[in-house]
Protein: SpoIIE family protein phosphatase
Amino acid sequence: MGSDGAAGRRTRTLRAELALKTLSADLDPRERLRRTLEQALVFAGATLAAVYVPAADGDRLCLTESVGVPRALYGLRDVYPLSAGGPAADAHRSGRPVWLTAEDLARCPAAQRLPVRDFSLAALPLREGGCLVAVGDALGGFDAEERECLRLLAEAVTGPVPAEDQAKELSAGFFSLTVESGRVEVDDEMLRLFGIEPEEFDGRVETLLSRTVPDDLPSLMSVVEADHMSIGDRELEFRILQPSGEPKWLRLRGRLLPAGQGHPARLVGTVADASKLRPAVSDVTRIQRLAAALATAGTVRDVGRAVVSALRKPLRADRVALAELEGDRLVVTVLDPPEPEAWPELWRTEWRSEWPDAPVRAMPTLAAALSEGRAAVWPAGSELEPALADVGPGGLAVLPLTAGGSTAGACLIGWDEPHDFAPDERALLTAVAGLAGQALVRAHAFDAEHELIGMLQRALLPRRLPRLPGAVAVARYLPTTAGLELGGDWYDVIPLTDNHVAFVIGDVQGHNAGAATLMGQMRTALRAYAVEGHPPDVVVSHANRLLVDMESDLFATCCYVDVDMEEGSAWCVRAGHLAPVLRYPDGRTEIAESEGGPPLGVVERADFPMSPLRLQPGTVLALTTDGLVESAAVDIEVGLARLADELSASDPGHLGLVADALLAGANRSDDVALLLVRYDGMEARPQRESWTVWRVPEAVRHARRFTRRTLRTWGVTQDVDVVLLVVSELVTNALVHTGGPVRLHLTLFNHRLRIAVSDNSARTPIKPTSIGWEATGGRGILLVEAMSAAWGTVPVSGGKQVWADVFLEEGPSARP
Structure:
């Protein structure tokens, strides 16, 4: 039996030799290489075989061909730097085969991240440099006969030159495009094809693209833009405009070479004249262009425009309509031409945002086409209902846009002159319907998701900014254009007591729903702590402790500025955030010097120092997030300096225009929040006095005497008894029902006198619902409510403040 097994293995080797001999020498080199590699799958038990050859620079191995299962399954890369080592590099340098079993590969840390881990690998050197890599599922590696077959195949492989050298050998214009920078190297033949003189070419790919016919530019951009490229070969035909104005067809063939260590990704290939080969546009090219346009169509309206652009002019149609199917109605998204006069009389009389006004079931022809889910055409003279017949008197095509077994919408194409539907045109319409249907479903989902994201973002940010005493504030928010367009940047304006206002801006790490949710929680927490009356450092410290206790994986930065609108003084607290930028009335700008603490949620017991700011009337305070001043190409210090320069040159009298101008060049790869405040100062300031109420038997009488003396100083002579009664009741209530210090505050502003009593109890006074005639207490709050215009309570740090407003019939104006 052992002899029979050995004979079987020898038979495999002989068959491999015979298979290699049968390969025709006339085959294209790449096709011959592919067929040679396929023998490894047949005779050597390999599941994947690939050939790597040295790049032109000689310091890396590049993949030139592979057969079998996808390389990603086994972690095979497209480029291997020779300096980094590895089986491929070792086989190339040493000239000896490398055989690795599954146990050998399991010791490699990178193998832990692969979908399949139990496999063996072989790397054999090639005669002309490079190596043959084979992967098998046998845990013990390739046996002796399989190794002999692989050696035989490695001898048979004539290593092809790298892709860029192959391109130079072709009789066409050569190019080498560096993807990241957009710089392109071309030869004289390439410039001749584009009609550019060598001395006029600046080395930019945009210069070549500018010669492209606009209709062909999206499909060409899908090839040369990094976001749309994948490793491998690509081919495309496109048109350029010659100096005479006539278009010319060119054919691009190229290959993307991935980036290696110190080497950027490059697209290399050739461009040849295809005018004689392709005198007209083929259906394949139309489909290619439409697929490229639909790949970048984000909304339903974008899909409609792409379909109209791909069909109307090429088919010489007179009108195209695209609509979504919602229930039993069609909701139009694109009409071309858009003028009502271009459409039938019935459409003009019932012109709506929805078309048609009647449900689909009222048009049996259209309903039947949609239910069948196949493209249908009617030549001139077909008997159709008027709503359809007048769309295309010379011919009508209805394309149900299907995806996933359901109909997402319909596309109607009409001709005024008799139109013949050739078989290839019917095939084109069917292909377009399938592509457009899938794109329409994706776009509809994107629109719905985008609307949901917008609603969530609007709900988390302030709907409008409050009117401020002595200041004007505007805010702007730009979501990132990447991902969900949902982020963690926020801003807030919080009116506080005594004409103080808190301005807050912050940024939660990340751009997803989790970051947005945490942003909403942090904004709510900061507002709650601020309204309680805590100083700025305590507000930020409480928010930090809250975020730490939430045990979130995210952190947040924040800048909190408490401005006294009466005095123009402010305190700034920073938690890992950018410092404010100040623009003074004379146009000078500076980045405010302020100490900063760590980001929120990082250190539980962190210090957040307060830094003083001075705002004179006319000063603009700018708070922003890093998305406005930082990017991959701009350092944050440079960005802040640029922001300060732009703010210096702006007109602070129109803050909205200033904010829009500052956001004009914003980096859309990150969220951006901007809050601008112009401090004007209060034209009139309230008059204030306060007094500590001692807990003595005559405390209420002392409070009344202080109030009477203060009113006399202010020149108030009316309603004094009403004020004294309210003072008596509020002070009595605080002394009886609370402990600790009690303080009386009087504020007069524009004939409104506010009486406020603060204590250290957080319990709010309760107004009794009913009081019997025999009750000895409980009437104080009822008296306060009856004698004042309004009353209420507000939390303050460590307690509360009960206030009541009395409007004086006549009194002094507030002092300027």
Summary: The mean pLDDT is 79. The longest strand covers residues 247-257.
